[in-house]
Amino acid sequence: xTDGTSRDGGxxxxxxxxxxRIEAEAPTAPLVTGSAQRxxxxxxxxxxxxxxxxxxxxxxxxxxxxxxxxVLRLWPRQQGQSVLTVHLPAGSEPQxxxxxxxxVGRTGDGQHTVVQVQVEVAVTVQVEVSRPRPHALExxxxxxxxxxxTNGSNVPVQVHVKVTDREGRLHxxxxxxxxHLAAGESAGVGVVLAWRKPVWRGRAVPHDYVVTAAVRHNAxxxxxxxxxxxxxxVSGVLVQAPLLRTWWLLVWLGxxxxxxxxxxxxxxxxxxxxxxxxxxxxxxxxHRLLVVRRGDPRADAARTRLS
Length: 307
Known about the structure:
Elements: E1 2-3, E2 5-7, E3 20-24, E4 36-45, E5 51-58, E6 65-68, E7 71-74, E8 79-87, E9 97-106, E10 112-121, E11 127-129, E12 136-139, E13 142-151, E14 157-165, E15 170-174, E16 179-181, E17 186-195, E18 205-216, E19 232-240, H1 246-261, H2 266-290, E20 292-294, H3 297-306
Parallel strand pairs: 12-19, 13-20
Antiparallel strand pairs: 1-3, 2-10, 3-4, 4-8, 5-7, 5-9, 6-8, 9-10, 11-13, 13-17, 14-16, 14-18, 15-17, 18-19
Helix pairs in contact: 1-2
């Protein structure tokens, strides 16, 4: 139990400055977000007159405190009790760690008594990871997908993103190092994926991959909520496209054969045309090797609505 101290807020009509005492029950466990904890508040009237005492919470936790009843009418030498309920919402507030719950008792003549209760807010880790956008993407070499990671915890966290696939064909180029998110912060993360070995010819083959977000925190205030620190996983599809299109080769072979068999003025036309097509194919292959493929957000939004 925690005793309050009396203070004069106005003229004292016949009573002593310490005629009202407030004793608040201390919590037996840390306060956990998303749950409620009830404490008993005892108000004692040590004065010679009938007192009406209004109880008001104050401090950082005041908006999550409810008193029932909030007002007590006490006869001389009488005590009454009120139930104080602290219901912390699920989310990033309040911050984890030690805090002070302040309770003010005011009488009708302006006297007020203040009691302070030391509480501990437990660590709650809750990190959400969105589905990769675009969810499905075709690329011959490299691709970039976007994730939205939201820290709904009441502590700062460190997030490490890792991408794996069952066949081991994918290589994660970035991000390679963990990044930090403050409590309540949301950030977009670009993940660049690359095929370990390109495919020169053939059909486009889809491969499923899994994004794992491992979460850590360094808070030491109170125990973490059970089951809240498991890695978050989301999945996506990356389609490996060949570097060479079959029709590119067919066109090149047709031009080369026509140039070889041509006679007269046609050779002067087909020769440069074959050379130009060869340069075009080499440029396209080089471009597909170097450029990071990005999805079209509008097309991905349409696929999301259809699914």
